[in-house]
Amino acid sequence: MRRVIPLIFIMLIFHVEAQAQAQAQAQAQAQATDSLSTILVEDTTENKENKPFYTPSATSQLTQNTLGRDVNEYLRTSPSLFTQHDIGQGGIAINLRGLEGLGRVNTTIDGVSQTFYQMNPAHGWNGNTVYLNEDFITDVQINRGFSNGNMGANALGGSVAFRTLSAKDLVEKNSRFGNRLILRTGSNGYGQNGMFATAYREELSDGGSVGALIAYGGKIKKGYKNGAGEVIAGDDLDDKAPMESGGRGQNILAKFEYAPNRYHEFKFTYLRNHSKTYNNHTPMNIASYSGLAEYSYKPLSDYIDLHTALAYSNSSQRFERESYDNGYQGRKTRNPALQFNIRNNSRLELGEADLDIKVGATFHDIRYNADKHNQSEPSLILVEGKQQRVSLFTETEVRWEKWMFLSGIRYEQYGMQGYLPPTEDDGAIVFPKGGNIHFKRKENHLNPYISLAYLPTDWLQLYVNYAHTSRAPNVQEFMYANNAQNNPYSINPYLKGEQSINRNVGFNILKQGILKQDDELRLKVNYFNNRIKNYITQRQFYICSSIDQAYHRCSIDGYTDSSNHSTIAPVGIFLNEPERVKMYGWELEGGYDFGQAYINMSWTKTTTDTPTDRLADMTSTTRTQPSSKFILDLGTRWLDERLIIGARMTRIGDDIVPAGIDFDSDQAIVDRIKGGQKIYDLYAIYNVNKHMKLFVNIENLTNTLYNYPMSSGGTLGVGNLGQPSTWANQGTGRGRTIYGGLQVNF
């Protein structure tokens, strides 16, 4: 940290000098004003849906979920994007190209990185989980492979950025007040959702404005039946069906923004969630809140476009007294985090070339600790850990005629701290023996990235990207933070950060007037090839004891021989894989719209050798995406485009699911579930007037039995066609489901 702070001051001094030079050139202000106006027009008028098709990298954009689809389905329409689907967890766990978890995919809400990750003995490690009412979401920006700017901090495989409602989204032009009401309900466990938001916004003199918004949302989700009529998340805890699962959540969003003039802007955001989930083994209460303060400064200068943000968040997870696992009853974990971002853009001209220079930094402090309400259980050891991250970046984008060149470099520094208390309790085997471990260490990475794009025509863009990225081990990994009473404890202070080399090659097509004057064709094709070093995965060791020997490490044969050892649970620990993990594949998305009808599609074909966690079949999840995903969406517009009627087809390729342990090799094994089933949906949207719209959906119209990829084994462990569960999540796709609702803006 001491080495980093001087670098920040150097960056700021450079820009202060640049500002002074710009202010000394009063005669250039008119030209600067014209230039700035052009930039603002591009940002505010461009169709957001088209942005990925002129961006020379593997990006996608999702707009508002106007159909009221389940948030997992809504996100999965984007190439290479999946979620860990677990109705017993209640949140959103992003999986991008088979990578998930804190730092593997930088998931943000309004620019704030989400650090909360589930600690659940029933389902293990679902990466970091985001709790956000889907009706608050206005758009989602997806960056695959690498992300530039502040979004690239500690982002190994890309980023997913959620943007929430603001006063501008509700208040119409020439009005000061606006409201939005959304109500949704459906069959087959869809549950009920509702959201109400009210906003105020007013323009001030000299280009200023003031605005405020407050929104409340709630939802109830339940278990559902698959195409065979099986209840996914069943009624009893037995060998064939897990307990009933579901959840309910309440969310509050409040925003205030004030711009005294066109140069300064202040924004404040408060987001709160309270969720109660019930699943096999562990009912939980989850509460999270975050506060965000932002400041932007945009003077009449090409050198200064400054943005800063300070955020604090705190998430807690409490296990209820009726938890199946007694070691977790009454336990509460907390995850406070502090984040600071700063970034400046300078726009210059160098001959016939335009330059965009960005410098910035991100500071992040993440802590993890726990307590217990029942202090009479001394064997419940409470580990705690801390992670500090600093990311500095500078990048330059050059646009000259038909060429675009981007180069940048990022410096990542992160520190890890952890503490494992001493213990003499025989019921808590500790690794290292005896506990009393207090460690602190640092690691640094220097990550360059480069991108080149060329426009042979005004509608075709070719591009290539090359980037190094890295990610710090999170507290859960180096402290194994889900240890509980009577289970072994293990830490790994020597865990190294993950590093990746990311390559993208692709092209964009964006063209109007192909068959009609007002039609439009959009297409993005991307090939990626990544190599990950020091990939972190879970492994397990066995502890045996006998008359002649105390506790010692043994083989799985010795562990399973009950005559030679006491019954001690295996020791789990996170380790770096010695071999590089390979990931490569194709991503395609696009569409054609000619007014009266449209067609959109998304296709992904991936191959990866990501290792399977040792206990993925019992207490964790598999992160490997299915071999392919194809989505085709056809729609027509009627009644002066007030009525939209459409159909959607989804086809998922073969899926990999965990299937236990090979006791001969002591390795996790997987099963390949045959894919290829086609799932058909119907939908309709009717705009009654400019204030009200109605929508209805029929998902899985033919009630097809299929596997829903990346369904967590613990909650969705029912076997196919009523067969006993092998924890291989077959047949977990939702059966025929009808739901609908309305949105009213007034």
From TrEMBL:
Subcellular location: Cell outer membrane
SUPFAM superfamilies tied to this protein: Porins
Keyword Signal assigned: yes
GO BP term (any one): siderophore transmembrane transport
Membrane topology term: Multi-pass membrane protein
Boundaries of every TonB-dependent receptor plug domain copy: 58-158
GO molecular function term, any single one: siderophore uptake transmembrane transporter activity
Stored InterPro entries: Beta-barrel_TonB, Beta-barrel_TonB_sf, Plug_dom, Plug_dom_sf, TonB-dep_rcpt-like
UniProt GO cellular component terms: cell outer membrane
Domain TonB-dependent receptor-like beta-barrel span(s) in chain numbering: 254-701
PROSITE patterns the UniProt entry points to: TONB_DEPENDENT_REC_3
Signal peptide (residue range): 1-22
Keyword Transmembrane: yes
Main location: membrane
Top-rank lineage group of the source organism: Bacteria
Keyword terms, alphabetized: Cell outer membrane, Membrane, Signal, TonB box, Transmembrane, Transmembrane beta strand, Transport
Family designation: Belongs to the TonB-dependent receptor family.
PANTHER family: HEME_HEMOPEXIN UTILIZATION PROTEIN C (PTHR30069:SF41), TONB-DEPENDENT OUTER MEMBRANE RECEPTOR (PTHR30069)
Name of this chain's protein: TonB-dependent receptor
Organism: Conservatibacter flavescens
